[in-house]
Write a sequence for this structure.
């Protein structure tokens, strides 16, 4: 019986210059450029098994089977791999996250990057990192960035992400303050479409994002934390202002989110280098330097509603792993 299998690990990334909105929804191309940091602490391991004994495609995140739209997205990516190789076997995908999935932290970036790599390897395809990034991007634009390690850019309308600086370029720390009580999750594609249709600020966001992206890229290249932090916070607040002004509003901020933002500002006033960013959820991510990380983490831990603070360093590119590797 034919069985083709492979496993890959990819790491989540957090955008320093944010992406929100599609230039081409059918091809999943982005309307604005983005720049992210791949994180060592948030890891997804994905195994794929093409098996002649399977009647249909199956996918699991931990023990939870995927159905409906989440399963369709996985199958659409595998269909592309099947079309490239002529293989018709059905597949079983099993994905494990090293971080709490229930926390609502974005796992689609690491998940689809790992799936693209594992799927290509299982079918014997030797795709370049750029080709893998394009494949991952078709499922989730942020996944294009998780194919690479370190600092990574995805230009507006681009097929694939490109590395900006390697993992060892700059030893920064990203603290993830996990906030329990959040808005009910709205899938990002749906949220972006809703924002583009109903937010009067959408055009202003799309027009202003490229300049902020350039500032973020320059600050990363020059390892200028103050310039990066200022531009990153601006990018975050521009994106949230645009979401908030949609109708009905996409409102991700909770009292704990605001408490964490306030803590970051107070830390800065007392001389700690700390800058915030947020995605489509209530969690707050804080960029700092190793010398300040412990103090910043302690300050975030005591914010009411913050349940956990995860500490991450720049992470590696997606890579193939053996059968016995931990999640
Ligand atoms: O590519 P998606 O569907 O995971 O959307 C990502 C959107 C944000 O996380 C809010 C911003 C970003 O650039 O990662």
């Amino acid at each position: 019986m034919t069985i083709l299998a492979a496993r890959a690990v990819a790491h989540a990334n957090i955008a320093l210059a944010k992406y929100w909105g599609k230039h081409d929804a059918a091809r999943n191309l982005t309307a604005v450029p983005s720049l992210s940091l791949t994180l060592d602490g948030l890891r997804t391991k994905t195994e794929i098994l093409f098996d002649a004994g399977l009647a249909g495609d199956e996918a699991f995140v931990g023990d939870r089977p995927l159905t409906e739209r989440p399963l369709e997205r996985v199958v659409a990516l595998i269909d592309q791999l099947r079309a490239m190789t002529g293989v018709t076997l059905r597949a079983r995908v099993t994905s494990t996250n090293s971080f709490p999935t229930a926390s609502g932290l974005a796992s689609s970036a690491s998940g689809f990057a790992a799936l693209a790599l594992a799927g290509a390897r299982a079918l014997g395809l030797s795709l370049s990192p750029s080709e893998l990034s394009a494949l991952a991007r078709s499922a989730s634009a942020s996944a294009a960035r998780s194919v690479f390690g370190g600092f990574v850019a995805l230009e507006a309308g681009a097929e694939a992400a490109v590395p900006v600086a390697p993992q060892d370029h700059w030893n920064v720390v990203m603290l993830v303050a996990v906030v329990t009580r959040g808005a009910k999750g709205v899938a990002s594609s749906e949220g972006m479409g809703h924002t583009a249709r109903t937010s009067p600020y959408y055009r202003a966001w799309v027009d202003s994002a490229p300049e902020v992206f350039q500032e973020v890229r320059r600050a990363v290249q020059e390892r200028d934390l103050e310039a990066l932090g200022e531009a990153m916070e601006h990018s975050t607040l521009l994106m949230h202002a645009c979401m908030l002004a949609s109708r009905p509003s996409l409102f991700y901020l909770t009292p704990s989110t605001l408490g964490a933002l306030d803590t970051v500002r107070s830390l800065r006033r007392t001389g700690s280098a700390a800058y915030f960013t947020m995605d489509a959820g209530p969690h707050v991510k804080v960029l700092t330097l190793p010398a300040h990380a412990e103090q910043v983490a302690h300050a975030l831990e005591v914010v009411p509603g913050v349940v956990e603070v995860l500490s991450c360093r720049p992470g590696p590119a997606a890579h193939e792993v053996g059968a016995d590797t931990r999640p």
Remarks:
- The chain has two domains: 3-167, 173-312.
- Residues 202-221 form the longest helix (20 residues).
